[in-house]
């Protein structure tokens, strides 16, 4: 098997596990956060729990008005959203221009699992997150968000109730 086929097989296995666990958990750091532009359309009424959370990565603001996260060693702030309906992943995949059958370099974002922590750095869960490749972030001229927080509606991390 080539790397792409192995990656796709792993993705199918992870999605199968989620179907049996009951909850679909997604770490969001941008427009899908409560109060941001895409929350109402994609998450409102579907989320059974939203909790402030962090994960490891590198956060960038993109010139198009939304963020991107890559793998990295910095702390990225966002929310852990829990859903009961696994079909939400297909809706989010469309929003994030992710297709599991495409090579990672052909997707705008790729859906992977990361470990997510609460604000006291206690592990909450492994959750899906949409990551962009560093090459794509560089092509788009992403600006590092050194504090690990992004908001399209002007909320700063210090103004969000924890």
**Which residue ranges are poorly predicted, with pLDDT under 50 across at least 5 consecutive positions?**
16-20
User: Which superfamily, in CATH terms, is the homologous superfamily?
Assistant: Gamma-glutamyl cyclotransferase-like
Query: What class would the helix/strand composition place it in?
Result: alpha+beta
**How many domains in all?**
1
| Second-tier CATH architecture | Roll
Q: Which features does this protein show?
A:
globular, 162 residues, 23% helix, Hypothetical upf0131 protein ytfp, four-stranded antiparallel sheet, 4 helices
Summarize the structure.
By secondary structure, the protein is of the alpha+beta class. The protein has 4 helices and 6 strands; from the N terminus they run H-E-H-E-E-H-E-E-H-E.
Outline the fold blueprint:
Blueprint lengths: L2 H19 L2 E5 L10 H4 L4 E15 L5 E17 L4 H8 L14 E8 L5 E9 L2 H7 L2 E2 L18
Task: Characterise this structure.
This protein is an alpha+beta fold and 162 residues long. Helix content is 23%, strand content 35%. The protein has four helices and six strands, in the order αβαββαββαβ. It starts with a helix and ends in an 18-residue tail after the last strand. Residues 16-20 have low confidence and may be disordered.
